[in-house]
Every structure is written in C-alpha cells, then in structure tokens.
Amino acid sequence: MSTPRTAEVTRNTNETQISVAINLDGTGRQILDTGVPFLDHMLDQIARHGLIDLEIHAKGDLHIDAHHTVEDVGITLGQAFAKAIGDKKGIRRYGHAYVPLDEALSRVVIDFSGRPGLEFHVPFTRSMIGAFDVDLTSEFFHGFVNHALVTLHVDNLRGVNAHHQCETVFKAFGRALRMAIELDPRAAGTIPSTKGSL
Ligand SMILES: [Mn+2]
Q1: How far apart are alpha carbons 157 and 100 in whole angstroms?
Q2: Cα of 78 to ligand 1 centre, how many Å?
Q3: Residue 123 CA to ligand 1 centre (angstroms)
Q4: What's the structural domain count of the chain?
C-alpha cells in the first residue's frame, strides 16, 4: 500500500468540539472519550470489528442531552472517512455483514457510492439503554452517511434486549466497513464503477 489511508478532522461548533483521527488500515486500536459512555462502547465495536484505528475526543453540551454530541460524532467520523478513503481506487466498495449477539441479529450493507442514503430499520424494544436514548442511534448514522457519502442499509432482524440490538448494529457496521474499504488485489488501482469515479 502506497499512501497511508489516514485522516484527522476537527469540528468545532457552539454545541460540540470534536476531533477524530482514523487509520483505515489499522488493527482496531482505539482511544474513545466522547463523554457518552454507551457511544464509546459502540464506537469500540467499529474499531475492533472494522480493524480501524480510531481516536475520538468530544466535548459536547451534555448538560442539555447527548443529542448534539452523538450526531456530531457521526458527522465528524463521516468526514474523516471521506478524507481517508481518498479516490477509492482499488477498494471493494460494497460491504455487508450479519452479526448475532445471543437472541439479537442485525444486518448492515454499505456502498461507498459517493451519495448519501440511509435506510434504518431498527425496532428497538426499549426507548432507553441505561442513560442512552435509542433515538440517537439513527442520528449517529444520519450524520455519518451525509458526510462519508455512503449508502447504508441497517436492519435489526430480531432482538429482545435493546443493548444487544444496538450492539449487533454497530458490530455489523464495523464488519461491513472492513469489507467495503478493503483493497481488492485483483482490482488494484481501478475505480470500482463503470462511471470511472465514485
Ligand atoms: Mn455491550
């Protein structure tokens, strides 16, 4: 591999201050400090199962709630992906994964299409996972797809425990990312699109 697929992005607003550093060809090392422990737990799944090195620091307006922080971490992570993946030469482009966790099962399918799109179908059985509002899960993914410019289909196929439902989504997301961003040796140096660009 010639150029390292890494990126650093800092995003500051009146609501949040966020920095993201990623290495798409990492080993799953992570330093996560978003101030939202459940979000850190989910981001850890992306790093570990995506084999992506991830360092994320966030200071958000948590005295209001976690909404801005979770959404803006999704946005900033999406920006970092767009930057690190570059011209997408030689990548597999599509990725998919099914991941179970006990009774829960989720499927995530991703396309580094250059177009933002999210289909999010996760019938959470509870509205809160501890202190974490489950509505924020789709906010995270909306932020990510709009800035990573990917098409993402997220389906929780079954599940009773909401923590399990959410965790299978993030694990499958990490696995699907890993497949999509992986360099395909048979397609080295080519852009995986008949248009010639993505
Ligand atoms: Mn867990």
Answers
A1: 10
A2: 23
A3: 18
A4: 1
CA distances from 188 to 18, 191, 194 (A): 34, 9, 15
pLDDT at position 3: 80
**Distance between Cα 26 and ligand 1 center (Å):** 22
State pTM to two decimals. Answer: 0.97
Question: How many percent of the chain have pLDDT more than 90?
Answer: 93
How high is the pLDDT of residue 163? 98
- CATH number of the domain residue 91 falls in: 3.30.230.40
State yes or no: pLDDT of 1 exceeds 60. no
pLDDT at 2 over 90: no
State which residues form the domain around 182: 6-187
DSSP 177: H
For ligand 1, the distance from its centroid to the CA atom of residue 45, given in whole angstroms, is: 9
| Alpha carbon of 42 to ligand 1 centroid (Å) | 8
154 beta partners: 108, 120
